[in-house]
Write a structure and sequence with these properties.
With 235 residues, this protein is mainly alpha-helical. It has three domains: 3-63; 81-191, no CATH class; 198-235, no CATH class. The chain is built from ten helices and four strands. The strands form two sheets. It has a two-stranded antiparallel ribbon with strand order 1-2.
Length: 235
């Protein structure tokens, strides 16, 4: 038995049973030999069972039926660069995929590396969280340049980091983490005001005597700077 054979068996069982959901206990009950193979051979760099690798290899229609184990209990945050190094050592020659990604294999490698670091971060490793944020930021910078739907995020570096931290904390599904981040930014970015799509020296559309810079105001309570949109009825 090898990994491909295990995946073939699981795909067949899921098709025959037509279960709405499944998890590790379901596999142990319906395919004990497969579970035993996974338990012994499919491990992360730190020795945990790598269910992400298993479920990602299944037919796409079955992937979303996976119900992960319970959310990791809150743990005291800690710094451990050795855990991060154990992950990166295996993929050091593949880290370029976060800077340039041109095919499906490289996109898959983005997810393999990022999910491994996300799982560490979810256990409380702050070093892993810093590393995954740094790597994903390269991909986000590329998205902002390439996709109009994300162009409004240019200049919102702090908000991007907050969104990334939220994605890391809430990620449960074992599909593409990069897609999860991408869609999160698409939906969350719809209400953003584009910071770099116009010059503040340009005249206001309905008032050629005033420039847009005159509409920049500062909230006296929060000190937040934003563009105030005047209307035709403003004095």
């Amino acid at each position: 038995m090898n990994f491909d054979h295990v995946i073939k068996i699981l795909n067949g069982l899921l098709a025959d049973n037509n279960s709405d959901t499944f998890n590790s206990s379901w596999i142990r009950k319906h395919a004990p030999h497969c579970y035993q193979f996974i338990y012994k051979n499919i491990r992360t760099e730190l020795g945990h069972i790598d269910w992400d690798r298993v479920t990602f290899a299944l037919d796409r229609k079955f992937q979303r039926r996976w119900v992960p184990g319970q959310k990791p209990k809150s743990r005291i945050p800690y710094e451990d660069s050795s855990e991060v190094a154990a992950v990166l050592k295996k993929y050091r020659e593949k880290l370029y995929v976060f800077i340039t990604c041109t095919n499906q294999d490289e996109r898959r490698m983005q997810d393999v590396i990022s999910i491994a670091l996300v799982r560490l971060a979810q256990y409380g490793n702050l070093s892993a969280k810093k590393e995954i944020i740094k790597l994903i930021q390269y991909a986000i910078d590329d998205w902002i340049d390439r996709y109009h739907c994300l162009s409004h995020w240019r200049g919102y570096d702090e908000e991007i980091q907050r969104r990334l931290e939220t994605c890391i904390r809430h990620y449960r599904y074992t599909g593409s983490f990069l897609n999860y981040v991408f869609l999160t930014l698409v939906y969350a970015g719809r209400s953003l005001y584009p910071l770099y799509e116009c010059s503040l020296d340009e005249p206001i559309a309905f008032d050629s005597k005033r420039n847009k810079i005159e509409n920049v105001v500062q909230d006296p309570e929060t000190n937040e700077i934003f563009l105030y949109k005047r209307t035709h009825f403003d004095p």
